[in-house]
Amino acid sequence: MTGRRGARFSACGSAAQDNFIILFHKLSYHEYLLTLASPDPRLRPTVTPTVAGTFAMSEPNDLERLKALDARLASLKKAQAPKTNGVAQGHDMANYAWRMVTELVAGLLIGFGIGFGLDKVFDTMPLFLVLFIFLGLVAGIRTMMRTAQEAQRKSTQAGTAAKNEGD
Amino acid sequence: MAAEEHGEGLTFHPMDQFIVSPLFGDGDVGVFTITNATLWMALSVLAAALLFIAGTRGRAIVPTRIQSVAELAYGFIHKMVEDVAGKEALSFFPYIFTVFLFIVFSNFLGLLPMAFTPTSHIAVTAILAIGVFLTVTIVGFVKNGAGFLGLFWVSSAPLALRPVLALIEVISYFVRPVSHSIRLAGNMMAGHAVIKVFAAFAPLILISGIGVAVTPLSIIAITAMYGLEILVAFIQAYVFTILTCVYLKDALHPSH
After folding, report:
1. Range of the domain at A41
2. Of A80, A107, A140, at which residue does a domain stop?
3. B81/chain A closest Cα distance in angstroms
4. Counting CB atoms within 10 angstroms of each CB, which of B113, B153, B205, B238 has the fewest?
């Protein structure tokens, strides 16, 4: 590994300096390699960074080159960002729908269970059953609406994120 | 269960695959009887253990294929816990990760032909959901004390309405483990049953002429359903885990 990287930036001579440069480049090295291999010719670097260029940043030429590199990295990152595909998103929404349905039914079931139990205990057959089925329904709707809120928040978040990325 | 005899000799036993039967001998199923459910649960535990113990044995810096699968799963759930429930919830990461692995392996092993799917039984998923429910509730009380009960006391409502709302809030708090378990078991059971129903139509070609059209259709349908089931097997495990994180977040920060 080190040997290969060292070979690329070995213009300075000493091994210690080489190592420092390798460390310096470590983070962007991978992305740099990606730009080299990119199928899009616009993303490929026009000038190969040299050791001198890394340190002598006062030259306006280098600043420009850094800016160009930043722009290239940004476009690369955008290209590599995980895309939200339609099928997965549809399945996500179906998941939310399914979740809401089970919540509604579960609320009703729990209401029914509590009401039935209380009626058995107090021997007041339809009273608590009716009361708690309604309460269970309300509770189910409440949980459902909360889930819907969550889904809405998530979709608006995703929407704004996509919009920001598009800018 | 529903053993319906078709007029032309097709037999439909879509629910037979969910029968719990003793593994050794054939007596009744008691509390400690070793059944096919026990076997497949043990197999999924074994598979998870193998993936992580044998798969990461090399501890290579450049991971082997199995090790990278293990690392991917670990990183995936770790990030999910951190993103959804926050940094404090990371102390529950081992528990959440265990639950996820158990469900994901049960679901996928259940997709093997002739296999039994433990997660298609509400008894299994209910235990998992009750475990999560108890953990979350206990954590909520330990971290927030009696203030956790404020979750049920809607202070923004008029005083007269509050007891009714509190009752509703309590019920909706108990909705979570129920829907949590029904969802997983329902999804797994429904998919497997549908595959079996389609499979029952497949031998129609041996019985009548209409089978020329029905048999290929049913085989295509089985394939499609199987593909969907692979998706569902993962997504349901994912949903169960992410909801666990959401509930945990509510327990750690009970402010709605």
Report:
1. 2-80
2. A80
3. 17
4. B113
Chain B: residue nearest A135 by CA? B168
Write the residue in B172, B182, B183 that is nearest to A142 by C-beta. Answer: B172
Contact B56, B67 (CB under 8 A): yes
- Asked whether the beta carbons of residue B168 and residue A139 sit closer than 8 angstroms, the reply is yes
What is the spatial distance between Cα A154 and Cα A20, in angstroms, rounded to a whole number?
A: 44
pLDDT at B1: 37
Task: Work out how many domains chain A is built from and give that number.
Answer: 2
Residue in B167, B175, B239 nearest the CB of A106: B175
For the question of an ipTM over 0.95, the answer is: no
Query: Is residue A67 located within the same domain as residue A92?
Result: no
A74 and A91 share one domain: no
Bridge-partner residues for B11, per DSSP?
B5
Q: Are residues A30 and A94 in the same domain?
A: no
**Residue whose entry in the numeric block shows the structure tokens 């235990």:** B127
What is the pLDDT, as a whole number, of residue A88? 59
With contacts defined as CB-CB under 8 Å, which chain A residues touch B133?
none
> Which of A91-105, B31-45, B170-184 comes out lowest in average pLDDT?
A91-105
Q: How many C-beta neighbours within 10 Å does residue B1 have? A: 9
Mean pLDDT value across chain B: 88
Residues A79/B160, Cβ–Cβ less than 8 Å: no
The burial of B236, by beta-carbon neighbours within 10 Å (0-12 exposed, 13-18 middle, 19 or more buried), is given as buried
CB distance B172–A107 less than 8 Å?
Answer: yes
Tens-digit pLDDT profile for residues B69-80: 999 999 999 999
Same domain, A99 and A59: no
Asked if the C-beta of B64 comes within 8 angstroms of chain A's C-beta atoms, the answer is no
Count of domains for chain B: 1
- Which 56-95 residues of chain A touch chain B by CB within 8 A? 91, 95
pLDDT in tens, B206-246: 888 888 888 999 999 999 999 999 999 999 999 999 999 99
Tokens of B115: 């296999």
Domain extent for B173: 4-252
Residue where one domain finishes, among candidates A50, A80, A110: A80
Whether residue B96 contacts residue B237, with contact meaning beta carbons closer than 8 Å, is answered with no
